[in-house]
Design goal:
- This protein is of the alpha/beta class.
- It has a single domain, classed as Rossmann fold (3-Layer(aba) Sandwich), CATH 3.40.50.300.
- Helix content is 33%, strand content 28%.
- The strands form two sheets. Strands 6-7-8-3-9-10 form a six-stranded mixed β-sheet, with helices on both faces. A four-stranded antiparallel β-sheet has the order 2-1-4-5, with helices on one face.
- A hairpin with a 2-residue loop joins β9 and β10.
- The longest helix has 16 residues.
- The chain starts with a strand and ends with a strand.
C-alpha cells in the first residue's frame, strides 16, 4: 500500500543542512497496524505528515497504492488524501467557526454522498463517540479531550482505508484512551490500515509492528 524509498527531508539553516528525515526506506502493507516511536524531535510527526501527503520531501520516491506521489501535482495529492486517508492530528485542527456536527461532516462533503447518507454517517459516529449532546457546540466550548474525540470522529467518518494518528490519545484520560485504542484495533480487524505516532509503550502493543526513529533515521523495526 505504502512504499517509501530513500526519503530525505531537510531544512537549510544558514550554510548548514539540517536533516528532518534521512534515508527512510519503509514498506507498509494493507491492513497493518504500525506504531512509530522515538524521542521528541526524532522526526515522527514529520514522517507521518510525509505519508499523509501534508508535507513534501526533498529526495526519494513515495508510492501510495501504486500512485507515484513524488510525481503528482498538489491537486492530485489532495484528491488521493481525501479519498483514502483519515488524519488524527495532535493539535485537533478543528474548524473554530463550525459546530461539532459540521466539523465531523466536513470530510463527507468531498465525497459523492446524498445528504441523507451524510446525516446517517455523522449520527452514527456521534453516537459511537458518545458526543450526540455536543453536536451543536463549537470547538471553543469543548475540553481538550472532547476536541480530540471530535478530531478522531472526523477522521473516521469517511471510512478511510488508511488512518494516520499523531499521539491520538495524548489529550485523553486513560479510560478514553483505552476506548480509542480498542476502536482502532477493531477497525484494523475490519481491514483498515493504521499508522500511529505514540510515546506510549502500551499503545504501541496494539500494533503489529513498531518502527523506531532517532535523528530522522529508522534505527529499529520489530
Amino acid at each position: 500500500m505504502i512504499q517509501l524509498e530513500k526519503i530525505f527531508k531537510w531544512v537549510n539553516s544558514g550554510a548548514n543542512r539540517v536533516f528532518l528525515l534521512q534515508d527512510i526506506n519503509l514498506e507498509i502493507e494493507k491492513g497493518e497496524f504500525v506504531s512509530i516511536m522515538g524521542p521528541s524531535g526524532s522526526g515522527k510527526s514529520t514522517l507521518l505528515n510525509v505519508i499523509g501527503m501534508l508535507d513534501g520531501f526533498d529526495e526519494g520516491k513515495y508510492t501510495f497504492q501504486g500512485e507515484p506521489v513524488h510525481q503528482l501535482k498538489e491537486k492530485q495529492k489532495s484528491a488521493l488524501y481525501k479519498k483514502h486517508i483519515g488524519f488524527v492530528f495532535q493539535a485537533y485542527h478543528l474548524i473554530d467557526e463550525l459546530t461539532v456536527y459540521e466539523n465531523i461532516e466536513t470530510p463527507l462533503l468531498y465525497q459523492d454522498l446524498k445528504s441523507s447518507e451524510r446525516k446517517a454517517r455523522v449520527a452514527d459516529i456521534l453516537d459511537r463517540f458518545n458526543i450526540v449532546g455536543k453536536k451543536d457546540l463549537f470547538p471553543a466550548q469543548l475540553s481538550g479531550g472532547q476536541q480530540q474525540l471530535v478530531g478522531i470522529a472526523r477522521a473516521l467518518v469517511a471510512q478511510p482505508q488508511l488512518i494516520l494518528a499523531d499521539e491520538p490519545t495524548g489529550n485523553l484520560n486513560s479510560k478514553q484512551g483505552e476506548e480509542i485504542m480498542e476502536l482502532f484495533k477493531q477497525l484494523n480487524k475490519e481491514g483498515v490500515t493504521i499508522i500511529q505516532v505514540t510515546h506510549s509503550e502500551k499503545n504501541a502493543t496494539y500494533g503489529s509492528k513498531v518502527i523506531e526513529l532517532l535523528d530522522g533515521r529508522i534505527v529499529n523495526r520489530h
